């Protein structure tokens, strides 16, 4: 029976401090699975350099020269974590993998959970989610905001797996199905459940980052959170409509009350109540316009149909850069 060809996809951005530490762990895992007979010798570790400005690509090239089970691709510029993961999955698919595991390179996700992911894949699951057992390594603020965010996403109508980020196994059928999703604004942890194949989850304990610093500060986390909501749900638009209806009804009651007050001769002049109403409605309208504008902006970007990633270089491609075709999905 043919053994599973597994690719471990690792997005990297300015990770020259941590990659020398975690690179051996990823290579050790893939070679260990090969020696155990769990996966075929064609299995690989595939790094995706997301346009790093430090020595990340040089380290990837060195590791690829040192061992044939390591491969790397480099994007032409930084396009974001989600686009880097997608590039790695599609490249793995083009190279003939049976399954691909996406994992961050900082060593926080337990690489040994791959064994249980493979068990679930062999039992027929096309998607296996890595789910954190707890968040004891996070600060109280990050833990509270992250868990509240997942609950809020569900409330807003988005289908997400609680405490799951981008550590997951996807079978070849699932990756092929994912390639049919054409949106430019990517939120993979919300897109994967939409595929609909048989899936399950494995839990693991998350560790401290082994070196370097996180490339997801609060600003980027908030942007990803808002992208997730607006990419997966139109409920904010519907809430605006319902709020508008409610305010209209309240305003109608206020108008009737004002008219009755005038007719009965009990009108009292005052600017405070008027100013408060104007300020409140002005702020509400600005908020609503901002939410609607976010959706319009996403429509604008989607209609352009720009490539979600462009691969500039591959460690396993001997051709010169100007001889290689530039395309989103290599059809090899």
Would you list the SSEs in sequence order as H and E? EHEHEHEHEHEHHEHHHE
The count of strands amounts to 8
* N→C terminal distance: 25 Å
- Give the CATH class of the largest domain: Alpha Beta
Neighbour order of strands in the largest sheet: 7-5-6-4-1-2-3-8
Question: Gyration radius, to the nearest Å?
Answer: 25 Å
Task: Give the proportion of residues in helices.
Answer: 40-55%
Tertiary shape: elongated
The CATH superfamily of the largest domain is: Spore Coat Polysaccharide Biosynthesis Protein SpsA, Chain A
Number of helices: 10
Determine the structural class based on helices, strands and strand pairing: alpha/beta
Shape-level CATH architecture of the largest domain? Alpha-Beta Complex
The percentage of residues in β strands lies in: 5-15%
Mean pLDDT: 82
Find the CATH topology of the largest domain. Spore Coat Polysaccharide Biosynthesis Protein SpsA, Chain A
Number of domains: 2
Main pleated sheet: 8 strands, mixed
Q: Which regions have little confidence, pLDDT < 50, spanning 5+ residues?
A: 319-327
């Amino acid at each position: 029976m043919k053994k599973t060809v597994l690719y471990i996809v690792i997005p990297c951005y300015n990770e020259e401090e941590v990659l020398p530490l975690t690179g051996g762990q990823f290579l050790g895992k893939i070679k260990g699975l090969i020696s155990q007979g769990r996966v075929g010798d064609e299995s690989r570790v595939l790094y995706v350099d997301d346009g790093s400005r430090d020595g990340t690509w040089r380290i990837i090239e060195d590791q690829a020269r040192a061992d044939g089970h390591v491969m790397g691709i480099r994007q032409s510029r930084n396009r974001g974590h989600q686009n880097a993961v997608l590039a790695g999955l599609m490249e793995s698919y083009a190279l003939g993998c049976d399954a691909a595991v996406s994992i961050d390179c900082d060593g926080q996700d337990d690489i040994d959970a791959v064994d249980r992911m493979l068990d679930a894949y062999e039992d027929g699951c096309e998607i296996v989610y890595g789910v954190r057992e707890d968040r004891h390594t996070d600060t109280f603020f990050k833990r509270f905001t992250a868990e509240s965010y997942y609950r809020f996403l569900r409330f807003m109508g988005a289908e997400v797996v609680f405490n799951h980020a981008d550590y997951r196994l996807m079978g070849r059928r699932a990756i092929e199905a994912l390639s049919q999703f054409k949106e430019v604004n990517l939120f993979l942890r919300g897109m994967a459940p939409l595929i609909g194949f048989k899936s399950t989850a494995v839990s693991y304990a998350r560790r401290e980052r082994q070196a370097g610093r996180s490339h997801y500060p609060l600003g980027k986390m908030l942007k990803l959170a808002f992208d997730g909501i607006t990419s997966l749900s139109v409920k904010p638009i519907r809430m605006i409509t319902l709020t508008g209806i409610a305010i209209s009804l309240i305003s109608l009651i206020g108008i009737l009350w004002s008219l009755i007050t005038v007719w009965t001769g009990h009108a009292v002049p005052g600017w405070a109540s008027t100013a408060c109403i104007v300020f409140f409605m002005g702020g509400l309208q600005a908020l609503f316009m901002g939410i609607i504008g976010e959706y319009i902006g996403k429509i604008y970007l989607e209609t352009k149909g720009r490539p979600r990633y462009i691969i500039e270089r591959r460690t396993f491609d001997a051709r010169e850069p100007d001889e290689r075709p530039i395309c989103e999905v290599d059809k090899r």
